[in-house]
Specification:
Blueprint: E1 2-4, H1 14-24, E2 31-35, E3 38-42, H2 44-60, E4 68-72, H3 77-88, E5 92-96, H4 102-112, E6 116-119, H5 122-131, E7 140-143, E8 153-154, H6 155-163, H7 168-179, E9 186-191, E10 201-205, H8 206-216, E11 227-230, H9 237-249, E12 253-256, H10 263-270, E13 274-277, H11 279-294, H12 298-319, H13 326-346, E14 353-356, H14 363-372, E15 376-381, E16 388-391, E17 404-405, E18 410-413, E19 418-422, E20 429-430, H15 434-440, E21 447-456, E22 459-465, E23 470-471, E24 477-478, H16 480-488, E25 493-499, E26 507-512, H17 514-523, H18 531-536, H19 538-551, E27 563-566, H20 586-592, H21 594-615
Parallel strand pairs: 2-12, 4-5, 4-6, 6-7, 7-8, 11-12, 11-13, 13-14, 14-15, 26-27
Antiparallel strand pairs: 1-18, 2-3, 9-10, 10-20, 15-16, 16-17, 18-19, 19-21, 21-22, 23-24, 25-26
Helix pairs in contact: 2-3, 2-6, 4-5, 8-9, 12-13, 12-14
Length: about 625
């Protein structure tokens, strides 16, 4: 089974994309950064000048075309300036998640052979200082903040050096050299977040990403007046392509959130028209909306559920290609005023579209937002595919799928259900790993995604990760992600991970939503001193088991977990349990909670033995 997007975009470079946007749009607020309690704009022309001077500064340091330069920073304007300076100098940059510990950073910089690195602040500079002796190729550390003693210079100093002796001739030469970079040249090496095994450096060319931008920007109508809030890590390809290059190419103002924790506040301040996020944001918003409704008194609760019912009937009509009218249209208008207008106000009141990627989004949550009048365009891709393979668009939208392949992209489903893709978006390979590259890309150019899916009238649906499929000891195959997504819609659940590969039956680990669970415990006069004690109580265990089983009521008998393990704290990036885009690292979970997991199955064995003795 195969599907294909439209014609392949003409090859191009990110440097051409950069210069074209500066001349075409020249907005006063190309970038926005929050300083002194308010957002301050930075124009296209100012960005272009700073990029040119930083690029010349890199050349004066003796950094040559083809060299690798790291970027270790949170999202901020200097990240964009460092990136474009590297690209227009013909360098390959290596973005690194600022949440990573020093040891992992050392591996990536050494593997890539980075000769310089940009760091954002003192915290990141101290990490590099700790590992600098392990990095023989690293010559220069440049700080976005001024951190004397930890860095060799600041980016301000780099730009000052680059500005000295600037003439029309040097500017023209810089632009000509930047535009001489070839579409096939390596633009960046992005290290996979390593949900399994050692991180691999994905080599992406200028045209890999350029072609993805060219095809994706036609999916959403842009008019050069949009504003986006940037908060996903720029070191991840989803935000890099979508929230950085595509926004720049379409004249969209990019406002940087202060942190992931301030996103709700920054949404109201920036009032974006576009927001890119991973499903965790939408899951948290959905849980907060339900909590507000359920704790708001009888009348408020009744109005909310009436509005939700009306909106769902309205959504069913719209998704079936009909235009709701009559009484339903009038009721929907009232529901918008009473309930959903408040939800829209929390996003700033101007949002045109959410875009979701990085992990599967629950169909129930997607439909809720659609019904509320906030459309989430879910897409799909990987670091190795620059990243977009398919995406829902306003014109081609189907909940439960990740949309149709974008222009130039081919998709086919292998005999075992694996999704394969081919086109200009497929990486050049993994740096220093020829065997892994050959394993990922077959001789015909098809990249093997490791995901299981199917094509439905041209729309691609993801059913699970190939490596995540649980095969029980009895041979039953279970796709865990759809089941986990159902469970996570429950207000008492913050996280859920299915287990059971090569075991007699499936189990599930649950991180409760303690705000909700503790309120329930207080209402039922349950007394506890800490969360560990609370989770040991049979009443609490029975409550969580009931909630899980309620969400999985429609699942096959063999898919329903027979045992539930409760965890007293959420998974974290710092402990290596989550990737920076909030995907669960199953191997880490298996390792960290081995004692608990083993106890679930040992308990089942003891129960089975006891039952058999009782029968005999």
């Amino acid at each position: 089974m195969e599907a294909r997007g439209g014609p392949r975009p003409a090859p191009g470079t990110l440097n051409k994309l950069f210069f074209d946007a500066v001349s075409q749009y020249n907005r006063p607020d190309a970038l926005q950064v929050r300083t002194g309690g308010a957002y301050k704009p930075i124009s296209h022309n100012e960005v272009a000048s700073r990029v040119r001077r930083a690029a010349r500064g890199l050349q004066l340091l003796g950094i040559k075309r083809g060299d690798r330069v790291g970027i270790l920073s949170e999202n901020r304007p200097e990240w964009a300036i460092a990136d474009y300076a590297a690209l227009t100098t013909g360098l390959t940059d290596v973005p690194i998640y600022p949440t990573l510990p020093a040891g992992q950073i050392a591996y990536m910089l050494r593997d890539a052979g980075a000769v310089a690195i940009f760091v954002s602040n003192r915290t990141q500079a101290e990490k590099v200082k700790e590992i600098r002796g392990q990095l023989p190729a690293l010559r220069t550390v440049i700080g976005f903040d001024d951190t004397p003693g930890l860095t060799d210079m600041s980016i301000a100093e780099l730009e000052r050096r680059g500005a000295q002796g600037e003439t029309d001739e040097t500017t023209a030469r810089y632009r000509a050299e930047a535009l001489s970079v070839k579409p096939d040249d390596i633009a960046t090496i992005i290290y996979t977040s390593g949900t399994t095994g050692e991180p691999k450096g994905v080599m992406l060319s200028h045209d890999n990403i350029y072609s993805n931008v060219a095809a994706s920007r036609t999916a959403i109508p842009f008019g050069g007046s949009d504003t986006a809030l940037s908060f996903l890590p720029l070191s991840h390809i989803f935000e890099r392509m979508g929230g950085h290059y595509m926004m720049w190419a379409t004249g969209t103002s990019i406002a940087y959130a202060e942190s992931i924790d301030t996103v709700p506040i920054n949404l109201v301040e920036v009032r974006p028209t576009l927001v890119l996020s991973v499903p965790r944001l939408y899951e948290k918003m959905y849980a907060r909306i339900l909590e507000t409704a359920l704790t708001g008194g009888f009348l408020k609760k009744r109005i909310f559920f009436w509005a939700r019912d009306v909106a769902e009937r309205w959504a069913n009509e719209k998704l079936a290609g009909k235009e709701p009218g009559g009484l339903l249209a009038r009721q929907y208008g009232i529901a918008q005023k009473l309930v959903f207008s408040k939800l829209k106000a929390r996003t700033g009141g101007r949002l045109r579209y959410f875009v979701s990627g990085g992990a599967p989004l629950s169909s129930e949550i997607n439909k809720f937002f659609f019904a509320a009048g906030l459309e989430i365009l879910e897409g799909y891709g990987l670091t190795e595919t620059s990243p977009v393979i398919a995406v829902n668009t306003p014109a081609n939208f189907r909940i439960g799928t990740v949309g149709k392949p974008i222009d130039g992209v081919e998709v086919k489903i292998a005999a075992d259900g694996e999704i394969l893709t081919r086109g200009p978006h497929v990486m050049k390979g993994y740096i220093n790993k020829p065997d892994a590259t050959r394993e990922a890309i077959d001789p015909d150019g098809w990249f093997h995604t490791g995901d299981i899916g199917e094509l439905r009238e041209g729309f691609l649906a993801i059913t699970d990760r190939k490596k995540d499929i649980i095969v029980t000891a009895g041979g039953k195959k279970i796709a865990p992600q759809p089941l986990e997504n159902k469970v996570k819609t429950n207000k008492y659940v913050a996280q859920a991970v299915m287990l059971g590969d090569k075991r007699k039956f499936p189990s599930i680990l649950i991180v409760p939503n303690f705000d909700q669970l503790e309120k329930w415990a207080m209402r039922h006069n349950i007394i506890w001193t800490d969360r560990a004690q609370l989770l040991r109580m049979p009443t609490i265990h029975a409550k969580m088991e009931q909630e899980v089983n309620k969400e999985l009521a429609g699942a096959a008998h063999f898919e329903v977990p027979k045992k539930i393990g409760l965890l007293e704290h959420d998974f974290s990036i710092e402990r290596g349990e989550l990737t920076p885009t909030q995907k669960v690292k199953r191997r880490a979970i298996d390792k960290h909670y081995k004692t608990l997991i083993d106890s679930l199955y040992a308990e089942a064995e003891r129960t089975a033995i006891t039952d058999s003795h009782a029968i005999s």
